[in-house]
Amino acid sequence: MSWMIRCLTLSLLMGCVSCVFTPWGTNVPDSYRDLNKKNIEKIATQNRPDSDGIKFIVISDPQGSPLTVRALIKKINARPDVDDFAFITVLGDFTNQGLQMEYQMMIESLLTSDLPFLGIVGNHDLISKGKTLYTETFGEMNFSFAAGGVKFIAYNDNRLEMPEVPDYRWLAGQLEGDSNRLATVVMAHTPWLETTDTDERTAIKQLFQSFGVDLAIFGHVHEGGFFETFGMKMVEVGQLSASNLNYAVVQITNDRQVVIERCDYECHSVTYQSQD
């Protein structure tokens, strides 16, 4: 009964059209399927010249708080420069328990965005029925695309839930290629420097270093941080919460510079810490 009451309450608050009363369902509405593919297609229709670079927004770890996401999206939509941004990326942990209701209500909040949005899988998103729900809702857990002259590579690195990841062969195949791109950006949920698996730390570092990754963006670490290591910038976006509507603004300029701001009530330039 508690699930039904919670669902009905949130539905009334958010104006949801539909509601799922079982926490174990995996029936994703057609309009909520393959959202990464649909939004990458929207990004492509923006027709941003490759020589111009790109600007986008990153948020992370809402963990089943759709009203908080809705409040942040409203704030972003109200920015006078909102049209300058190509998309929003959510770095995982959409949900707390990987349940259908959490996915559905989070998507309903994200759909209020004036910008296309992309979803990267987090460790909480893989709990219970989460693996099926993420795949049905967003698509493949590893994906890539190009926009504004930048190659974006998103990969699944949630080893506690899926010990076989990350897929190093897939990553290497995505990283190699056009030397004329402005930058290479990798995105995942868990920072590779935070893993206790020394083999993974070494493998990822060597891979990113050998292919000259310019920027790596992660969530998971709720405090957030900004680092530089072997010439690569690394962003750990702090957790989104009702008391802290924080996000990061990332810009890749046409002269290959990476410019990052941390935003809450206002946006501020960041100071990088050196990281071995």
Task: Provide an overview of this structure.
- The chain has a single domain, classed as Purple Acid Phosphatase, chain A, domain 2 (4-Layer Sandwich), CATH 3.60.21.
- Helix 3 packs parallel to helix 4.
- The protein has 7 helices and 13 strands.
- Helix 7 links the parallel strand 6 and strand 7.
- The N terminus is likely disordered.
- The strands form 2 sheets. It has a 7-stranded mixed beta sheet.
- With 276 residues, the protein is α/β, with parallel strands linked by helices.
Q: What order do the strands of the largest sheet run in, or round the barrel if closed?
A: 4-5-6-7-9-8-13
Write out the CATH superfamily name. Answer: Metallo-dependent phosphatases
Structural class determined from secondary elements: alpha/beta
CATH-defined fold name = Purple Acid Phosphatase, chain A, domain 2
Q: Which parts are unreliable, with pLDDT below 50 for 5 consecutive residues or more?
A: 1-5
Q: What is the overall shape?
A: globular
Please give the largest β-sheet: 7 strands, mixed
Give a count of the beta strands, DSSP E runs of length 2 or more. Answer: 13
Instruction: State the CATH architecture.
Output: 4-Layer Sandwich
The level of helicity is: 25-40%
Alpha-carbon distance between the termini? 51 Å
Q: What is the element string, with H for helices and E for strands?
A: HHEHEHEHEEHEHEEEEEEE
Radius of gyration (CA) equals: 18 Å
Mean of residue pLDDT?
Answer: 89
Percent strand equals 15-25%
Number of helices: 7
CATH top-level class: Alpha Beta
Give the tally of structural domains. 1
